[in-house]
Structures are given as C-alpha cells and as structure tokens.
Amino acid sequence: MTGVSDRWPVTLQLEMYSRFFPRAKKWGTIYNAGDPRSILYVKELREAAGRLKVELIEVTTSNGDEILPAAEFLARKAQIIYITYDHIALSSFDTIAKVCNEKKIPLFGGDLKCVTKGAMAAYGWDYSQIGYSAGRKAVRILKGEQAGDIPWELGEKLVLLINEKAAKAQGAIVPPELLKKANKIVGE
Prior knowledge:
alpha/beta
C-alpha cells in the first residue's frame, strides 16, 4: 500500500497561528467527543498546546444545535479559537465565525476552506500538490513497480491563507511579516 496523506498538521498549524498572537495564552476549540477522528486531532492539539505553554479550553458537542452555545462559551473564556478537524464544527463554521466577529475573538481553521467561511487564517495542505504527488505514485505503479515498495508520504507543501476582512471583523491586525509569508490574501 502507498499514497499521500493529507492528515491535518495540527502541531504545525498551532505553531503558525501562535505567531499571529504570541502573547495569547488561552486558546479554545470545539469538537465532537464521540468522533474518534476528532479525538485524534484534539489529542495532538493538546500536546502542541502543552509544548507552546498555552491553555486549551475544550468544548464538546454532539450535534450542530450545540455549536452556537459552545462558540459563545468559548468567546467568554478563550482569547483565540482554533477549529481543527471535526465534522460538526466545520459544518457550522459560519456560526462560529459570526460569534467570533461579534465578540472580537480571532478565529483560525484547520482547513483552507475555513478562510472563505470567516477564519482570519488557515495553514494547510495544497491539495493540487497532493494530487500531483499521488499521480506520480500511480505512474510508478502503472510502470510495474509494486505499490508496497513505494513509501507513503505526507503532503509536501503547506499553504498560508489570510482573510484580512475576517481579521478586521474579529478585531485583529495581521502582523506584516505573516502577510508577506501568506500564499494568498483574501478580503483585502
């Protein structure tokens, strides 16, 4: 078996987002504690928060109706909200963004699509690069190489997207050095 993984780089994401607000010590997240995949990502987020010496305030949900009160709770407790992989939270991301805008809480997403849904930034995989890498592996297999002999790999390129309009709505100013690092800026 071989392939290219697009597992979200939670540790690298939190490290990047911490560069936006290096003094922030209370970060919040929302996830479904009944989803094993979400739990895996939040476990990594906890470990990354520990290494960065920031407190992670967690709110669990089990359905979309719980997102609004969860976001409102976090807006009272956390300085920053970061939504990592969680189907329920991501499907209600616009609700979380609305609360963050109203309460002036910076919001980050684990998926690049979060930027168009109201996150001030997202740091994630370039999926066209992942597809290209997977295609290179497919060519090797079509030429006769055994899939099991081709090592799997993570994506090669992370992309930083920044939404200046969302940052402004959330009462944040994006540091100039991160604007320069951004692969794309939307909402200018």
